[in-house]
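User: Run a structure prediction on this.
Assistant: Running it now.
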Amino acid sequence: MQRERTLFEKAMARFTEPRYFKLELFFAGIIVGTLTGVVISAFCGLLSLSEHYRPLMYDWLMTNCPAGFLGWFFVLVVIAFVLARIVKTEGMTSGSGIPQVKGILLGEMHMDNWARVLVLKFVGCVLAIGAGLSFGRASPSVQLGGCVGQGVSRLRKCSQAEERYLLTAGAGAGLAAAFNAPLAGVIFALEEVQKNFSPLVLMASVGAAVTATLVSETFLGTAPVFKVGAVPVVPVDSMYLLLFALGLFVGLLGLGFNRGLLLSLDVYDRTPLSGWQRPIVPLLTAGVLGFVLPEVLGGGEQLVNSLSVTDYGIAFLILLLFAKFFFTMLCFGTGAPGGIFLPLLSLGALGGAIFAYAAVSLGLLDPHWTIDFIVFGMAGYFAAVVKAPVTASVLIMEMTGSFEHMLAVICVSMAAYLVSDLAGALPIYDALLGRTLMIRAKISRRVRRRRVMAEFVVENGSRLAGMTVKSARLPEHTVIVSVRRSGREIAADPALTFVPGDYVTFLADDTSLSVIRNLLRERIQF
């Protein structure tokens, strides 16, 4: 009881001086960003080397050393054993990593050993992506940044509230460093990871994302990830119908991606494959594809770059779309370490290219605008899959170095988002997290009750809006630390009525965070 009273007093002291707390979070975010930038620079540097040398190795094997085929396939088998061992040793390394970060922030998961997760995730992703699996670097970078954020928090002996802010900041910094996209990193932390546009989250995230980008640019350069060349400015007023149609098209493709990804996990669960047997399937498939269709290997960065300079023809583009889609499903279903950011962006680019080629053949589009539709397709596909249209728009602009197309990108992104939303699709990372918590019950059993502090916003239309503190049905042992309204601190007395836009800081058991979150966001049914 005394310990809880002391914790409550410390929490009150921190939040009654928000100016100093914001400043402290900003400088802590800079520390997190610096360390994240170093980690992600090493991570992306190794992946870039693998992307460069893997095609050269396949060419060399085909022309100079046919007997080396067996040696390479033996290496793939060894990598399968290593990946299986990594996932068995630390379950938090499985998959993309973003659902795990979201689960920690929701209080549904715990990362007990952040350093072990960081090292094993780093090694596992380098091996998996380097071997050619259809994984990307962005999602693992988000988790690696989250590990750094938690590590800095633990080393500084921060409170649970600060740890959540720094973990969120590290996650955004990881994305920013991986893609040279600081603004997208900040927005991703707010829109997708935290789902809360809190000034406290903003301060830590800005400091971390900007610093991480500066560090990564020091080591890796300032060039955008996708080198698509000059992207002419689209006349939105005369092409808005085509842009809207593109959004609908890639939105439907995105729906297929979401459902296919979850189905791939279910299919693997129904098979007798376990341990090293799971990753060996896509690894051996990658070995074959390296000789017959190398374009679909890896995350897809080189594939996207080639679309702007190579006339593949619509038939071959459709082949690439289906091959990349099914290979990504085959890889992700294994649970091996690796993300889906780059694969889904490359699929969006292919979708945009197919749409543009079809429109050109029908006389609806001048070939001059093909590259625009490739770029816009990436944004729309991302918006439909992740259901984060603002992040999608900003991310694609920063990744391609094209900032004059914001209106067109937003049109495509929102059209694709509406298709996904009307179909009732969940954001893919939320769906993956829900599946993980439901099927892997052992994770839920590992959760220990701890007192944590978290800040949530009362959304418009939520059940809590209009209720008083006294009438709100909060979980047992939950204490309201502070309420901020229009920048002012308000005493949380029993008669206080919550209104939309209030930022409420709770002190509660970590197992109660999801209940509180749902209460503040649950919509009233009319």
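The first strand starts at residue 451 and ends at 457.
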